[in-house]
Amino acid sequence: MRTIADMMEAGSEQIFERWLERVQEDHAPGALSRPELADHIPDFLREVVAALRREEEGQAPKTHRVGPLGWEHGEQRFRVGFDLSNMVREYGALHDCIYDFMEEQGHALLRVEEVRVLVQCFNRAIAEAVVHYTRIRERELLGNEAPPPPG
């Protein structure tokens, strides 16, 4: 049986392209360039696959590695005009694109451990994106400089 990591790796371009289309149609604040829309999402997908691979090998999945990508994504989305709810929804759209792709490939049985790692990666990235987005917005409203990324 193919794993989530196998499917995401093989279909990463298709998943990404579907996500780009959904974000542009449903969540973007207007017409944005492909690089503006893509931002850190390809790197995020690679880190999710890496976390899933580590779990398959019986190692700690290291989902914390997606945190800095979420942090940077939150800032970038603030800068290009996304509102907070649409930024969170675009992560949901990516999650849906992954599950849609797996379903189309005939992959209906998932291991709980795989789903847990996938959800942990998304939750961590979303949390970091929201925290940073909110901090930048608050500082901008107060007329202060944005905080540095977490060290």
What's the number of domains?
Answer: 1
- Given as residue ranges, the uncertain stretches (5+ residues, pLDDT < 50) are none
The CATH architecture term is Orthogonal Bundle
Which outline best applies?
globular
N→C terminal distance: 39 Å
List the helices and strands in order. Answer: HHHHHHH
Helix content: over 70%
What's the CATH topology name?
Globin-like
* Number of helical regions: 7
Please count the beta strands (DSSP E, at least 2 residues each). 0
Q: What is the secondary structure topology, with strand pairs?
A:
Elements: H1 4-10, H2 12-27, H3 34-38, H4 41-56, H5 67-80, H6 84-104, H7 112-142
Report on the structure:
- The chain has helices at 4-10, 12-27, 34-38, 41-56, 67-80, 84-104, 112-142.
- It is mainly alpha-helical and 151 residues long.
- α5 (67-80) packs across α7.
- The radius of gyration is 16 Å and the shape is globular.
- The termini are far apart.
Provide the descriptors you would attach to this structure in a database record.
151 residues; mainly alpha; Globin-like; 7 helices; 0% strand; globular
Quick overview of this protein structure:
The chain is mainly alpha-helical and 151 residues long. The chain is built from seven helices and no strands.
